């Protein structure tokens, strides 16, 4: 490395020539790979998330809607709820299995830094934990064991960091969970009123005690999920509109970048002009053949 360049081992991010890193990230994105964090706690939390969503779908479908005497009431609400559940779980999968913007490990080499063509005296920053050159707004995640671009936070419920590449899917996940929670609570309230009128004799195919227990647990789950995801959704939208991640807000970091506020921030995260593609978790999904011969393991995550 030239003596005119300085390399510092620090944990804070600093402006860097992002074009080289972006090119490296694009090359990684084009490769056939699946991102998955091998964290026991995160895997358990992700399993619990899926179990609770499927439990809510079971109660709504088999306890409330199928025994209903109104055909169209059952069909309309069944289609709406199950579509929202599919969108929520698809958003969860996209968040969990998408590389959030990991900086390549161990790229702080003499050859790589010479390729950056830095100006004499320019300071670049290296993460001492993963030995990588840290681009602007990148932070190290101790669970993913990588530096993540525009890292907002690590969420155990999706078993992944929320960063530059998957924040859109995380926002959709919180939005759809809040919507199905609201729908489930509304159906539960209507079901309780209906069952009380008929004295629980004809409102469900299950016995009254079982029906009550299933619906009470569904209501508790719905209230918990709704409060958590609604707050998280609002926080994420606020962060996007202010172009400030949660870590940057907590650390009170002064922006050294040109902020993209409001609609500019939304377009940078969701892509393009407002359209139905913004709320579609399948947008941009390509079914690629996974080549097991090129699989490699690297610490807490594996790629294919």
Written overview of the protein:
Its main location: membrane. GO terms for molecular function: protein-cysteine S-palmitoyltransferase activity. Belongs to the DHHC palmitoyltransferase family. It comes from Oncorhynchus kisutch (Coho salmon). This is Palmitoyltransferase. The protein is mainly α. Helices cover 50% and strands 11% of the residues. The strands form four sheets. Strands 1-3-4 form a three-stranded mixed β-sheet, with no helix packed on it. A three-stranded antiparallel β-sheet has the order 2-10-9, with no helix packed on it. A two-stranded antiparallel sheet has the order 5-6. Strand 7 and strand 8 form a beta hairpin. Helix 2 packs antiparallel against helix 3, helix 2 runs parallel beside helix 5 and helix 2 packs across helix 6. The longest helix has 35 residues. It is elongated. The two termini are 33 Å apart. The N terminus is likely disordered.
Q: Would you kindly provide a brief summary of this structure?
A:
The protein is mainly α. The chain is built from eight helices and ten strands. The chain starts with 5 loop residues before the first strand and ends with a strand.
The biggest beta sheet reads:
3 strands, mixed
Structural class: mainly alpha
* Beta-strand segment tally: 10
Q: Give the helices and strands as they follow along the chain.
A: EHEHHHEEEEEEHHHHEE
Taking all Cα atoms into account, the compactness measure Rg is: 23 Å
Described by the principal axes of the CA atoms, the overall outline is elongated
Strand content: 5-15%
H/I helix tally: 8
Task: Report the uncertain regions.
Answer: 1-32, 289-299
* Helix share, percent: 40-55%
**Terminal CA distance:** 33 Å
Q: Widest sheet: strand order?
A: 1-3-4
- Arithmetic mean of pLDDT: 81
């Amino acid at each position: 490395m030239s003596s005119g360049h300085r390399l510092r081992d620090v944990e804070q991010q600093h402006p860097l020539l992002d074009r080289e890193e972006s090119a490296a990230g694009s090359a990684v994105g084009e490769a056939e790979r699946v991102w998955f964090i091998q964290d026991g706690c995160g895997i358990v939390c992700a399993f619990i998330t899926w179990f609770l969503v499927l439990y809510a779908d079971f109660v709504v479908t088999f306890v409330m809607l199928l025994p209903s005497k109104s055909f169209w009431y059952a069909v309309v609400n069944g289609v709406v709820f199950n579509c929202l559940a599919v969108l929520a779980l698809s958003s969860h999968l996209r968040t969990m299995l998408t590389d959030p913007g990991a900086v390549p490990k161990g790229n702080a080499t003499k050859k790589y830094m010479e390729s950056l063509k830095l100006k004499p005296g320019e300071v670049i920053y290296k993460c001492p934990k993963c030995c990588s050159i840290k681009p602007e707004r990148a932070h190290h995640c101790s669970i993913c064991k990588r530096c993540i671009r525009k890292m907002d936070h690590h969420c155990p419920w999706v078993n992944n960091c929320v960063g530059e590449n998957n924040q859109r899917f995380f926002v959709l996940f919180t939005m759809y969970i809040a919507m199905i929670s609201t729908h489930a609570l509304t159906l539960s309230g209507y079901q309780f009123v209906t069952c009380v009128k008929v004295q629980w004799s004809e409102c469900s195919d299950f016995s009254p005690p079982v029906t009550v227990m299933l619906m009470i647990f569904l209501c508790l789950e719905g209230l918990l999920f709704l409060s958590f995801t609604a707050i998280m959704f609002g926080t994420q939208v606020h962060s996007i509109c202010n172009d400030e991640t949660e870590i940057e807000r907590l650390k009170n970091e002064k922006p050294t970048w040109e902020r993209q506020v409001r609609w500019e921030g939304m377009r940078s995260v969701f892509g393009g002009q407002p359209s139905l593609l913004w709320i579609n978790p399948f947008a941009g999904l390509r079914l690629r053949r996974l080549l097991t011969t090129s699989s490699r393991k690297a610490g807490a995550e594996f790629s294919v």
